[in-house]
Inverse folding.
């Protein structure tokens, strides 16, 4: 989870009043966080936030949220957005590489050492989390006084544009940056396969940024009062817009004035950033049922205002006005969660029950555990295999009777296209991967297969050695049946899985419940095994049904 470090005194300045540190330590976790490295009386504090709240990844965002949560300033924080008159053009050539580009200006920002560190931390945390290590978005923050608008976002030839990258003093072209610069090497994979690279340039051709790789040294932000230009590029519009809104509002919390720029993107012309909140309505009675509360519409309005939203109620309907920085609000249940948070998680629940209860294992679990003990006692090692398989292994190579299987709609690999109908093919794969190990190898699995749309428990045991025999696997099968006290009969089995005359069926109550025998050499070779194999497989469901009255 993202960790932010800040000063207690700085947080109080942003809150607008001095809140006791112990109150903050107690209340901050209630909005979805974990206090980290915070000592009483020490000015240094650390908070680890849940990943669903990127708007809280800075002390500025935390202060905005806590002002509402502590009832210092409940409701939605509103930011005036003026017009800067600055124009930005998005060249359509860049659409094939990194299509989304939004930007904004924040003027008169007093940048201190402490704030600069906070700003850089916010930028990197957004890169790593919602930016997916810059693959979804990349953020640039620039000193506007060093460049001349209008700005252009375009695709450039890797050798046609040269500039000095951030924290360096040597001019490089775009291709050299990807091979010689530390950041360039780290993120070069994001531009693999492209013949042109995106750049942001001013009127004179000076480079502000080479997204998503690195900014230019020209627009480096330093300590002092500055007008800042913020750009966000990426492949996901919602993430790009959300990151821009979060950064601009964090700067505004420090006293900056947000101004929009005029974006020319193909046939579209619009102002950015657009902090217009979204509106969502939900049923108060449905929320109460979901949470197990009796807050009612007016109570929910109060809770939502404590979460930094504006809200109103009419009848059973609650209308929530959601700030543009709240990227986590996607469904009604997300608003239910905010109602619960604003109400206070510490207020949920009732008295502890004094009734003592005891848990117990399910009958099927008891039976399967007993089988595991039996097989281990017979000298076999338990394995656990995947329930995904494929018809080639299940039926074609194995020679087992083919049945309808549950198919995977969008399989990732050819090896995992259906749910298994037998355990045997899965266990053979274990032997195949371990054929370089010493012999003999004896393994078993008590697991589930899927037949006729239902999961059914099965036991499969398998052994490979330089010499194996039908007598050995027959003795194992009879030992298992004896231990679970089931009377079964054995009949000949002529399926191609077995050597002719060396396979048998286990019959119970007139129905086949299992098979055992020596695996056919053709099947052994088909699975790429080099030594003979014997195996047995039992369907446990009819056996458990018979034993329910005595075993369970």
């Amino acid at each position: 989870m993202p960790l932010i470090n800040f000063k207690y005194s700085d947080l109080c300045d942003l809150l607008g009043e001095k809140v006791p540190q112990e109150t903050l330590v107690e209340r901050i976790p209630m909005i979805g966080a974990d206090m980290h490295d915070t000592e009483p009386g020490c000015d240094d504090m650390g908070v680890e936030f849940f990943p669903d709240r990127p708007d809280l990844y800075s002390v500025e965002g935390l202060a905005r949220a806590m002002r509402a949560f502590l009832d210092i300033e409940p409701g939605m924080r509103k930011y005036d957005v003026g017009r800067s008159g600055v124009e930005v053009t998005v060249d359509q050539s860049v659409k094939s590489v990194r299509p989304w580009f939004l930007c904004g200006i924040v003027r008169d920002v007093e940048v201190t050492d402490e704030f600069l560190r906070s700003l850089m931390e916010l930028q990197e945390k957004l890169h790593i989390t919602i930016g997916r290590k810059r693959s979804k978005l990349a953020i640039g923050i620039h000193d506007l006084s060093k460049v001349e608008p209008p700005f252009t976002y375009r695709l450039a030839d890797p050798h046609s544009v040269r500039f000095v990258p951030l924290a360096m003093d040597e001019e490089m072209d775009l291709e050299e940056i990807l091979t010689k610069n530390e950041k360039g090497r780290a993120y070069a994979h994001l531009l693999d396969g492209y013949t042109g690279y995106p750049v942001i340039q001013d009127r004179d051709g000076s480079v502000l940024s080479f997204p998503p790789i690195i900014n230019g040294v020209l627009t480096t932000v330093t300590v002092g009062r500055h007008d800042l230009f913020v750009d966000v590029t990426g492949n996901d519009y919602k993430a790009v817009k959300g990151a821009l809104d979060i950064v601009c509002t964090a700067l505004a919390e420090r006293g900056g004035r947000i101004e929009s720029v005029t974006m020319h993107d193909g046939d579209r012309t619009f102002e950015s950033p657009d902090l217009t909140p979204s509106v969502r309505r939900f049923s108060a009675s449905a929320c109460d049922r979901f949470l197990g509360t009796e807050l009612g519409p007016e109570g929910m309005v109060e809770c939502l205002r404590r979460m930094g939203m504006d809200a109103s109620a009419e009848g059973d309907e609650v209308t929530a006005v959601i700030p543009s920085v709240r990227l986590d609000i996607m469904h009604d249940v997300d608003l239910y969660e905010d109602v619960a948070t604003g109400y206070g998680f510490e207020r949920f629940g009732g008295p502890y029950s004094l009734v003592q209860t005891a848990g117990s294992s399910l009958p099927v679990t008891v039976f399967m555990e007993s089988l595991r003990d039996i097989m281990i006692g017979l000298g076999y090692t338990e394995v656990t295999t995947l329930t995904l398989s494929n018809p080639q292994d299940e039926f074609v190579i194995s020679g087992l009777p083919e049945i309808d299987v549950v198919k995977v709609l969008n399989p990732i690999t050819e090896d995992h296209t259906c749910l298994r109908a037998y355990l045997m093919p899965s266990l053979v794969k274990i032997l195949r991967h371990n054929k370089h190990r010493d012999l003999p190898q004896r393994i078993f699995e008590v697991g589930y297969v899927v037949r006729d749309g239902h999961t059914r428990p099965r036991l499969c045991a398998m052994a490979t050695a330089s010499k194996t025999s039908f007598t050995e696997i027959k003795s194992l099968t009879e030992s298992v049946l004896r231990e679970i006290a089931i009377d079964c009969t054995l009949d000949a089995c002529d399926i191609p899985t077995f050597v002719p005359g060396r396979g048998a069926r286990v019959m119970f109550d007139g129905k086949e419940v299992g098979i055992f025998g020596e695996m056919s050499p053709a099947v052994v070779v088909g699975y790429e095994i080099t030594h003979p194999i014997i195996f047995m497989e039992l369907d446990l469901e009819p056996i458990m049904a018979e034993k329910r009255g005595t075993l369970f």
